[in-house]
Amino acid sequence: MENSYGSSRKSKDVSLKELSDRLAEFAQVRGWDQYHSPRNLLLALVGEVGELSEIFQWKGEVARGLPNWSSDDKEHLEEELSDVLLYLVRLADVCGLDLGQAALTKIVKNARKYPILNQTQTSTFN
């Protein structure tokens, strides 16, 4: 079996299922399953969110696309966002949840909770 952990920067749509499967294999072959309880994964996730927050802590408002950021700063952000995503995906998997389906269901719930405002309602906010 080919090692699928090599570095690659090619653009490819990746499913949550693929991430989940790769993370499960990654943990299993290292004997880390014993440490991947929901509690431990949640605490690791919170730590990674803290690291992500530090990147923005003193920057004030940041423009979309990060036009004033260096490539090193953007790479650091990518790494921290990836850490958050990977822990979230692993947590959902260990809890036996389908994170993709849960997210789609949540979008539908939010659409009902926050309906599109009609033109007269919108104009009062301008």
Verbal overview:
The protein contains five helices and no strands. By secondary structure, it is mostly helical. Helix 1 crosses helix 3. The longest helix has 24 residues, at 71-94. The mean pLDDT is 90.
Helix proportion of residues, in percent? Answer: 55-70%
Largest sheet: none
Which structural class fits the helix and strand makeup?
mainly alpha
What Rg, in angstroms, do the CA atoms define? 19 Å
The total count of strands amounts to 0
* Pattern of helices and strands: HHHHH
From the N-terminal CA to the C-terminal CA, the straight-line distance is 58 Å
Q: What integer is the average pLDDT?
A: 90
Please indicate the percent range of residues in DSSP E strands (runs of 2 or more). under 5%
Number of helices: 5
- Poorly predicted regions: none
- Shape type: globular
Topology:
Layout: H1 16-29, H2 38-56, H3 71-94, H4 99-113, H5 119-123
Helix pairs in contact: 1-3, 2-3
Keywords:
single chain; 126 residues; mainly alpha; 5 helices; 61% helix
Summary, kept brief:
This protein is mainly alpha-helical and 126 residues long. 61% of the residues lie in helices and 0% in strands.
